[in-house]
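step=predict obj=Hopanoid biosynthesis associated radical SAM protein HpnJ n=494
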Amino acid sequence: MPLKTLFLNPPSFEKFDGGASSRWPATREIESYWYPVWLTYPAGMLEGSRLLDAPPHHIKWQEVVEILKDYEFLVLFTSTMGWDGDQKMAEVIKQTYPTIKIAFVGPPVTTSPDKALNECPAIDFICRREFDFSIVDFANGKPLNEILGVSYKDASGKIQHNPDRPQVTPEQLDEMPWATQIYKRDLDVTKYNVPFLLHPYIALYSTRGCPAQCTFCLWPQTLSGHAWRKRSTDDVAAEMKWAKENFPHVKEYFFDDDTFNIQKARTIELCEKLKPLGLTWSCTSRVTTDFDTLKAMKEAGCRLLIVGYESGDPQILKNIKKGATVERALDFTRDCHKLGLVIHGDFILGLPGETKESIRNTIEFAKQLDCETIQVSIAHAFPGTEFFDFAKEKGFITNEAMNDDGGHQMAHIEYPGLPVEYVMEMVHKFYDEYYFRPKAAFRVVWQAIVNRDVPRLYEEAKSFMKLRSQRNKAVRAAKEANAAKAQESVSMNA
């Protein structure tokens, strides 16, 4: 029997979505939770294991410590924002259960393994990048010095970095357990909410990796890599058929791949196998997807696309190596509207080259696109990304803290002539200008009525306005602090 293993997406800030597959680990404007898909695969390969997703199930650290009395091995998925709290609790757990083995996985320990092991003696080892088989090897008794892709301290206290593990192959992806089976075993799918998806929903992957080179994107640069590996369409369709039978109350399935439809032939082939199932599903999409592919998706039950437009400024798109143009984005969006595909558009303020003018360009671009819903994020330079290296080299990182005390995103990059408080202020102006248009406001309310989601819309609106107020206070405080500094400087020079 393998070590009895608990896979943990840990408690953190209230409403924090960090250790799952969220693109921007943070506390959301509106309470949202993505699934910890990464943890399902090794959890499914180890008999007697359990996947514990604390945030959506509102499980506190005290409860986690109590649950751990029945386990021999803890695998914790940490995040950049959650690292401080996670490592402190690892120390508590080790003190409570001295014999338990603890492994950390996730971006921070991949990019800074020495830092992780030196700061947190409670960690027995960390897994770099894809960790599925490294974790399974250890739980099945393989010595650390023989396991690829791990870093640990040897008996003398010296840090050892074993050679990297080869990336998971397409064949191995097909052989892995289905994420949905682990959800059925360990999670309550009604606890997961994303405002623009039907509730309840389920998220899963059909591929791994992303060949795109976007400089800011966390996952391809830290965990999954740029090599695009796909499950067979037969395996994906079989999982979807099983999920439909086992989750009759689920309204929507979401393919959370970084680039679900990047290959036309594969997408159309999968759509042909999904069509007979009669499912409602959604996915991520790049604006380079052509009309024929989108048409096949719509006919197979696709309802919504999450699209990373990022910016409406052509130079910024070049700066971040987006591999797309404003013109192509407009054509793609027209195709989606023509087919009746709903779009949730993602935008980021504060990317390299951002100016007050480029922010205005992006706001006007978003209104021209007229997507069903949008999300406006503040650019975060996560360690391990090309964006981080650029911002650090140029001295644009004003502080290492990307979040406030509640885990909310805060601007931490400042360009000449673009104060951080201005970027924060423009996030709210972006939302206001977009959603307070009569057409946009009516559409959101009408969809809530059609989908019988009016109570959810009401709660989301309250949450958003509360956070908006908190952020506005932070912006005012920053402005006052800067004004005081400026006055002090004038007085000193007088």
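step=describe
The first strand starts at residue 5 and ends at 9.
step=end
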